[in-house]
Amino acid sequence: MPGILSVSSIVLPHWCTTSRRVVRMAAAHTPIAGVSFEAVTIKPPSHPTYDLKGIIKLALAEDAGNRGDVTCMATIPFDMEVEAHFLAKEDGIIAGIALSEMVFQEVDPSLKVEWSRKDGDYVRKGLQFGKVYGRAHSIVVAERIALNFMQRMSGIATLTKAMADAAQPAYILETRKTAPGLRLVDKWAVLIGGGRNHRLGLFDMVLIKDNHISIAGGISNALRSVDQYLERENLQMEVEVETRTHEEVKEVLQYASQTKTSLTRIMLDNMVVPLPNGDVDVSMLKEAVELINGKFETEASGNVTLETVHKIGQSGVTYISSGALTHSVKALDISLKIDTELALEVGRRTKRA
């Protein structure tokens, strides 16, 4: 690009190439705002050991391997600066804006990013909703990792938004069925989409499931063991127990009526019965909710889809959990283009913009 506006001495990131000092040539451009995390409207869940920056570094390192981006080194002059635009190629809820900024900052802190949308906003196909300006080499190196995070998170947020709206007045939850290593990222996307988080892991909530019950010798034994453990360890946390039949619900209620317990929620698992015509029968679920009668929070799980969630939400349950929000995510199609006119032309030709 013609014209030298400023000269500064820099060291390229290690995943771009081997460290070397170069002279930067900044071409004329429209000034844009610097990266700021003050605009993060929906923060990630709090986790005691999760290293979000470490996940970003790992993603960049696996891409760079032991040589860095050989294509960039072969084709892009180190002193060239460009402006690239984020382009939505389908309708959906955008998520991962804050995380993508972290990626660009990790690759090259001199990059400048500006957005016309924020996490949780709706975008339409063909919309340019953000741009990044700076060293071309750095932008191209960061591009794929930033988009991978953003596309996955946006896909989760888009489905979550649809299910959360349909589930009302119940609240939609995800589960622990997240991509390994991306637990916080996936759950962050659920929050951005308007859902709520279930437990983050094995440490922040007691969830007594069928295998625990079988090993403990029944629901009452499992609940008693949990209550004793929490008292012994002087711990206070939410406790949920899974039930699969009305008999199990009654046993839980009987135990709770006779014993001081830390139980806060009863899961009603697979009480939504699929019908041959594609509909679902929620009568068993409704009866269970009536049995509990507000004594505890309730959570429906099993056979939860975008088509069934509204009917389940009308049953009176407090929460509806769906593993599909994160384990069957369809990424939202987003690209980062320097030649946006050509990208839009191609997109129109392929009906993707």
Core attributes:
353 residues; alpha/beta; Aldehyde Oxidoreductase, domain 3; TIM Barrel; 2 domains; 6-stranded parallel sheet; 4-stranded antiparallel sheet; 12 helices; disordered N terminus
Give a quick rundown of the structure.
By secondary structure, the protein is of the alpha/beta class.
Structure description:
This protein has 353 residues and is of the alpha/beta class. It folds into two domains: 48-156 and 332-350, Quinolinate phosphoribosyl transferase, N-terminal domain (Aldehyde Oxidoreductase, domain 3); 163-328, Alpha-Beta Barrel (TIM Barrel), CATH 3.20.20.70. The chain contains twelve helices and 16 strands. It has helices at residues 52-64, 70-75, 97-107, 136-167, 183-192, 210-216, 219-232, 246-258, 283-292, 309-313, 324-327, 340-349, and strands at residues 9-11, 21-23, 81-88, 92-93, 112-115, 122-123, 128-135, 171-173, 206-208, 239-243, 263-269, 273-274, 280-281, 297-301, 319-321, 334-337. A six-stranded parallel sheet has the order 8-15-14-11-10-9. Helix 10 links the parallel strand 14 and strand 15 (319-321). The longest helix is centred in the middle third of the chain and has 32 residues, at 136-167. It is elongated, with a radius of gyration of 25 Å. It is an enzyme of class 2 (transferase). Pathway: Cofactor biosynthesis; NAD(+) biosynthesis; nicotinate D-ribonucleotide from quinolinate: step 1/1.
What's the structural blueprint in terms of helices and strands?
Elements: E1 9-11, E2 21-23, H1 52-64, H2 70-75, E3 81-88, E4 92-93, H3 97-107, E5 112-115, E6 122-123, E7 128-135, H4 136-167, E8 171-173, H5 183-192, E9 206-208, H6 210-216, H7 219-232, E10 239-243, H8 246-258, E11 263-269, E12 273-274, E13 280-281, H9 283-292, E14 297-301, H10 309-313, E15 319-321, H11 324-327, E16 334-337, H12 340-349
